[in-house]
Amino acid sequence: MMIKSIQFSNFCCYKDTHPVINFSIDTEKNVTVILGANKSGKTTLVQAFLWCLYGEFNPKNGVINSEVRVALDNHSSKDVFVEIILIHADREYTIRRTQTFSKVGGRVRSDDSILKIQYKESNGEQHSIERRNCDDTIKNILPQGLSDYFFYEGERFDDISKKDVATAVKGLMGLDAISTARERLDPSRAASVTSKFRSRLSLGNSQENDNLKRSLEKYQSESERIQERIDNSRSEYEFYLRRKSDLEEKLSQNEDAKKLQAKRNSLEDDIKYGQENIENAGKRILSDFQQKALSFFTLPFIDSALSSIDKSKNSGVGIPEMRQAAIDHILARDRCICGLELSENEGARKRILTERGLLPPEYLGTIVHNFKISLLNYREFSEGFVNLTQANYNEWRKSINFLDDKNEDLKKISEEIKKSGAIDINSIEDEYQRTNEKLKELFDLREKLIEDKGRVKNEIENLEKKIASLVEKTDSNRKLQNYIAYSEALYNWFDASYVKREKEVKNDLNESVNRIFSTMYNGHRIVSINDNYQIRLLINIGSENEELADTGGLKAIKNFAYISGLVDIARKNVKKAKQDNEDDENIVNKTEPYPLVMDAPFSATDENHISNIAKIIPGIAEQVIIILMKKDWFWAKSAIEHKIGKSYIIKNVDNSETCSEIVKGE
């Protein structure tokens, strides 16, 4: 596929019928450069291709130029069209999509767009394709699923790792046709050609034969259900892989948010600690008061009583536990407990009488003294309780103040997070962990399903052997057995061819993408293509390659390297097919060279990488159409100007924001 020209009329910012824009199809100078400022109509040019080929466009007011739309008179109409002339499989196609806009009752309405295609044979003879076959013709030239990779909008293009690239690669390399053939011949599928032949075999009329056939159909259906679950789990696995990549990117892009979140987490932990301290101190105070509240409230009274005792004159102290009756007994027998005769020692007698005066019931000094001792002991216990309660209260108050401070700090950090626009790293990290768990769950499920499919396959093979042994020897059965043998042989051949070809495609794509990436990227990272054709960015650490998240300019370079690699291997595939079949005039090549039409390919890259990318662009595809801003062209020009076949400039007409024109460049 080579694009010769494009023309449009009243399409978006291109008012009236614009002159034809011819693109370079020169094999040496294969680059067409179109320069334009922001809002001038650069992206509209790419959208014109997509609308013409696929009818793809979703602006509020449709594809019609806004000035033309406003100027429509009531009951009048205007046509919008885009016409592309391209060469595909040695035929020149003229593809035009037209949509009519009419004003009725003050409102502008439109009919459905109409696609018309004509082609010209090498002898100049013109043919029209029936309208019902136009969409299929476009699909054969360039399926819409591949359009993202050849009509590249750098500013809008999402990460290549998030797209279903497997379908695109298989379609581009012709693997989808082999895959379809495998599926239709697969003996394990009940609806396959092979199974239908087998179901027609005559096994006689016995009940056993009918049971075998039913069992075979049951296991074939089960095999299909298992395969469907395997396919679904694979798709789901790929979805979570892409989600994991998104989360890794968000985590790596938000280091500031991570720091703020870490501060917030620390404050939340402090607040939790403070709340626990307040709760524990309160519990201790309450528990102690429930048991010993009397000690707290009697302490002032104890101090008052002790003060009164100290001021009392009855503070003398007698012999503890001694009473006057005991002294009277000693005096009556006239002998001390020490054996001294009191009648012979008047001084000792007088001393005993003195002690008698200090004893109850006649003297209160001892009672008061004993009471004082009890009060002092009780006061010591009460004072310890009061001190402990005071300490708990101080801890409670300290925790309240601590909590107030931390809550205030938390408010400040929350405001800081809001102002910074930072995301919640914790929630992302939690989702990241859940995603990892889901990936493991899906991996284990797929392994189990593959094991189940192997078991069912064995059952199918055993049943087929039993059925084969019971097949009646009839001409009809012999023919069916030959058909079955042929279809099984074809299946095995397609299966082996598919596995071999897919491995070659992956290796070629991996080599091509890495070569292009290393040429564009000034660093030590590499890329790798996994089994699902997803591209991963790696860096070598020791003896291991570790996957990295990619952002900004690096993501743009990775995306561009992948798309360039796709186009590169498609181009090589065409050349190889032509070399292998150069003597076969009837060969029809499945693959065609594809152009690269790129809007703002350098939008997210720096000047060094712009130059590197520009150097390799002409060698990637047979035709390259680049639409870019002058500031990017400044850095790309020296690397690519020797390959430019045609150049244009997009200008606003009379400084209008709604009308542009494309004129030849200098």
Folded structure, characterized:
- There is one protein chain.
- With 666 residues, this protein is α+β, with helices and mostly antiparallel strands.
- It folds into 3 domains: 2-142 and 600-664, Rossmann fold, CATH 3.40.50.300; 159-193 and 485-593, no CATH class; 291-420, no CATH class.
- It contains 17 helices and 17 strands.
- The chain has helices at 42-54, 66-71, 134-141, 144-150, 165-172, 175-185, 193-199, 207-253, 255-311, 324-333, 346-357, 365-420, 425-470, 475-520, 552-580, 607-620, 630-640, and strands at 2-11, 14-17, 21-22, 31-35, 77-88, 91-104, 107-110, 114-120, 126-129, 151-153, 526-529, 535-541, 544-547, 596-599, 624-628, 644-652, 660-664.
- The strands form 3 sheets. Strands 1, 2, 3, 5, 6, 7, 8 and 9 form an 8-stranded antiparallel beta sheet that branches. A 6-stranded mixed beta sheet has the order 10-14-15-4-16-17, with helices on both faces. A 3-stranded antiparallel beta sheet has the order 11-12-13.
- Helix 8 (207-253) packs antiparallel against helix 13 (425-470) and helix 16 (607-620) packs across helix 17 (630-640).
- The longest helix has 57 residues, at 255-311.
- 25% of the residues are buried.
Detail the topology: elements first, then pairings.
Layout: E1 2-11, E2 14-17, E3 21-22, E4 31-35, H1 42-54, H2 66-71, E5 77-88, E6 91-104, E7 107-110, E8 114-120, E9 126-129, H3 134-141, H4 144-150, E10 151-153, H5 165-172, H6 175-185, H7 193-199, H8 207-253, H9 255-311, H10 324-333, H11 346-357, H12 365-420, H13 425-470, H14 475-520, E11 526-529, E12 535-541, E13 544-547, H15 552-580, E14 596-599, H16 607-620, E15 624-628, H17 630-640, E16 644-652, E17 660-664
Parallel strand pairs: 4-15, 4-16, 10-14, 14-15
Antiparallel strand pairs: 1-2, 1-3, 1-5, 5-6, 6-7, 6-8, 8-9, 11-12, 12-13, 16-17
